[in-house]
Amino acid sequence: MDPVLQSIVQSAFPGFICTLFLLTFIIIDKTFPPRTMRFFACAIIFAFCLLLCDSFDTYCKTKKVWLEMRFIIGSLAYMFRVSACVMTVVISQNKNRQRAIVLLTLLTINNVVSILNIWTGWIFTLNEDHTWNANYLFFEPYIVTSLSVILYIRVAIKQLKHNLGESAIVFASIVTCSIANILEIILGINFVLPLSLIICICFYYLCLNVELYRRDALTMLFNRRTFYMDAKRMKKNSSVIFLSMDLNDLKKYNDIEGHAAGDLALTTVSNCMISAFQYLAKIYRTGGDEFIAVFKNKTPKQVEEALERFNTALSKTKYSVASGYAELKNNEDFEKVLALSDQRMYENKRKIKGNSVR
Predict the structure, then answer these.
(1) What phi, psi does 224 have (nearest 5°)?
(2) Could you report the per-residue pLDDT of 322-341, keeping only the tens digit for each?
């Protein structure tokens, strides 16, 4: 076998395997919405196409053959690398359709420019000796990618407290792909960027699956299982305050107005919790209408202030929530402190029920 082809196959084959397995998971897995699965499929396919382009480019560069074809493939590679990055970022923007549309618009512009480069040479041209010449639109794909990465980082920072796992994967992906891009530009090393993209996309998919099983399907808050796993890891000398909360009249919404109304009540209340607590506490849905926020290394005053913000946001809705908190002090039993916060929550519920006109 040709040594050049052998080297290319050895370098590209791990990326092929990762792509094949992820596409298989995407086809058989129904965990995520179809839109998310389509974006994952597009991201991994674009990354794999970039890997094929790098393989072809390496062969042509080494053998000094197929100059025109190498130029065409090089133009398409600019399209594939930006597409893989942007598609991955679009997945993280699932709650902001406007940003997703902006990103897809920028991606469309980049892809048109990349394809037109075959005839215009706006981004780069290729010399007879197989060396590249950068032209005035050379940095356009990098600008589009950078804008995507900025949005990616913004989402990761906003979710840092509430969704540490996804944020960590986002930052690791950015660092990995940035290093790969530098190695490609400065040292002229092929394969590192497409392989990095493929691996990062696979790990991002894995991270979202793991996060899904740690969270409540409706509200996307952490679930009861995660709460007790986190509770076991709490150090005995750590300062922790448990805030127990209970949505009032959920059964009424379900029985009279239907389960869709009950789901709306739960999601509305949980969004108010996220707005008020996400930078201070981890929030869990531990039962049908029961929630717990865990404040670490925070004072009762900070909890009271956060609770006031929550009640202010809640007052703009038609829902009400009973609450009570208790502080875990040195060597105290976790279950007893949690029971105390529940007891105070039920006292608050009786007070609300007694004064409520509903």
Answers:
(1) -60, -40
(2) 999 998 877 677 888 889 99
Return the structure tokens found at 48. 């794999």
Listed residue (107, 75, 76) closest to 89, CA to CA? 107
Rounded to two decimals, what is the model's pTM? 0.77
Cα(199)–Cα(173) distance, rounded to whole angstroms? Answer: 9
| Helix (H/G/I), strand (E/B), else coil: 126 | strand
- How many angstroms separate the CA atoms of 94 and 279, rounded? 21
8-state DSSP, 274: H
Count Cβ atoms below 10 Å from residue 200 Cβ, excluding itself: 24
Give, in degrees to the nearest 5, the angle at Cα 236 between 233 and 239: 95
Helix 67-92 crosses helix 34-63 at what angle (to 10 degrees)? Answer: 150
User: How many CA atoms lie within 13 Å of 117's alpha carbon, on the beta-carbon side?
Assistant: 30
> What are phi and psi for residue 242, nearest 5 degrees?
-100, 125
In whole angstroms, give the CA distance from residue 216 to residue 276.
Answer: 19
